[in-house]
Amino acid sequence: MPQLLTLSRAARLVGVTRGAIQKKIQNGELSTFEGQLKVTELLRAYPETQIDDTHMLERVKQIKTAATFTRPRDHESALPSTDVLIARLIKLGKELIEVKSAFKRQNELLKTTSNKLAELEDDSLHQWLKAEIQQHPKLDPAAQLLANDTVLGIIAAQVKIIPSGHEFFVEGKDSILQAALRAGLAINYGCESGNCGACKARIVSGEVQAIRNYDYVFTDLEKQMNYQLLCSCTAITDLTIEAAEAHNPEDIPLQQIDTKVKKLAQLNDELLLLRLQTPRTNTLRFLAGQYATLQFDNTEIQAFIASCPCDGRNLEFHLNSKYNKFFDLNQTVKLEGPHGDFVLQENSKRPTLFITDDQGFPPIKSLIEHVIASDNEIINHLYWISQEKIEHYQHNLCRSWVDALDDFKYTATETINQVVTDYPDLSNFEVYIAGSENLISAAAKVLTNKYHIAKLRGNK
User: Which of 11, 150, 376, 452 is the most buried (most CB within 10 A)?
Assistant: First the structure.
């Protein structure tokens, strides 16, 4: 039986994204066995892998940290709690005992075979086997990679969701729910405090450990079927769970939340950055590209959410500067949402083009940050259309995405015609357009294929 790794674990071990592994599979550079990768295949495709490089397992995390806003954790350590570490080491110890027992049995069989061969008249086979037993084999690269995989299993447990097949890692002191959200998955949840039961899921295989008390009461049938609250437990071992996920806007309920103003900053002369924070027990569930209704001082506006759904507590908006006078730090803003269907086509395997201008960037930013959180390595190209000679207000952020991501492209141009020049045939692309009426009108004249347009044009 070949030694196998899941795609997510293989990607971490060689220091690339899961999407990069998938692209090599699609291109025929890697072959899979029952949906997994052989260790020998992985090393063949990535011969430059530095087995002893202790930083390689952190590369994917560094990419995300450099490219997206990350909410502060309640803890600084990337290691699990002491109880979880002990449980994982106990599990590893049991596996080690099993391996040692099997090795001892094999060794005894070899000695028995050697003794029987010694009784034969032809001594050549006996001498060969004796010499082979006395040799000390060198640790080959595949074995070293598997050793690193064992270390990874102590630091982070892998979770697979069925029926979607999505995978993610549980790191540090995160709950399973927190880890899923950080990975960009639209998994069902509500209060995040163990009261509502919305995040309950069936543990199909693996072991979990409770990390907080909860008030939700499981039925006897749910207990028998091994249901757990994902917000209140973490993974001891690798898991397979059966959990509900949102795949389209209709899967997410409309929510009303009282938020607090946590940050106000001028992005440029015309735009204001507003960051709202929800209560810990009532974060916003939304899909990247959606918008919300904000109510404050007898005023109501609709604004696209400019942040990633992986952080439903800290919500970013880019508003017209005229609204600056309406806000103060820690002011309460009533939020209703999410609204809109300007969301990613999750099942599409086609490369993606994003087209925007100053007015349309917030939903595009949310979409791109979701792509990054999801480890989607399908080629993405962002076009920022602006006739201004100076750099636009988020130029540095766009440049950071290019620096951090291998297959991300960014072009600032004065005309949407540049898109057609670069990609004469757009039939095999997903195209997302958000911006002013002028941009939408120009796109309709130039682009002939089907594309996705933000339904809300922004705030004037």
Answer: 11
β-strand partners of 263: 275
Asked if pLDDT for residue 112 goes beyond 80, the answer is yes
For 295, list phi and psi in degrees, rounded to 5. -120, 125
pLDDT band of residue 55 (cuts 50, 70, 90) is very low
Quote the CA–CA distance of 340 and 325 in Å, as a whole number.
27
Residue 66: strand, helix, or coil = helix
Coil, helix or strand at residue 18 = helix
Q: Does domain 249-339 have CATH number 2.40.30.10?
A: yes
Residue whose pair of structure tokens reads 């163990």 in the numeric block: 194
If phi over 0 gives left and psi between -120 and 50 gives alpha, with beta otherwise, what is residue 367? alpha
Q: According to CATH, what is the number of the domain 156-242? A: 3.10.20.30
- The third-level CATH classification (topology) of the domain covering 352-453 is Rossmann fold (3.40.50)
Query: How many angstroms separate the CA atoms of 89 and 94, rounded?
Result: 9
Residue type at position 321: S
Structural contact between residues 156 and 171, judged by C-beta atoms closer than 8 angstroms: yes
Local structure of residue 25 (DSSP, 8 states): H
Query: Facing residues of 317 across strands?
Result: 274
The phi and psi torsions of 292 (rounded to 5 degrees) equal: -135, 160
Amino acid of residue 46: Y
Tokens of 194: 């163990």
The reported pLDDT for the residue numbered 99 is 75
pTM > 0.85: yes or no: no
Place of tokens 């039939």: 427
User: Residue 353: exposed, middle, or buried by beta-carbon count in 10 A (0-12, 13-18, 19+)?
Assistant: buried
Two structure tokens written together for 134 = 């006395």
Taking only the tens place, the pLDDT of each residue in 234-289 is: 999 999 999 999 989 999 999 999 999 999 999 999 999 999 999 988 999 999 99
**How many Cβ atoms are within 10 Å of 249's Cβ, its own excluded?**
16
The answer to whether 459 and 303 are in contact (CB under 8 A) is yes
**What number is the average pLDDT over the span 339-348?**
88
What is the identity of the amino acid at 460? Answer: K
Question: Is the CA virtual torsion 216, 221, 210, 252 positive or negative?
Answer: negative
What is the domain partition of the chain in residue ranges?
Answer: 4-53, 82-153, 156-242, 249-339, 352-453
Cα–Cα dist 229/201, whole Å: 6
The proportion of the chain whose per-residue pLDDT surpasses 70, expressed as a percent, equals: 89
pLDDT tens, 166-183?
999 998 889 999 999 988
Could you give the CA distance from residue 56 to residue 16 in angstroms, rounded to a whole number?
9
Residue 173, C-beta contacts closer than 8 angstroms, at least 6 positions apart: 74, 75, 77, 80, 81, 84, 211, 234
Q: Point out which residues pair with 209 in neighbouring strands.
A: 234
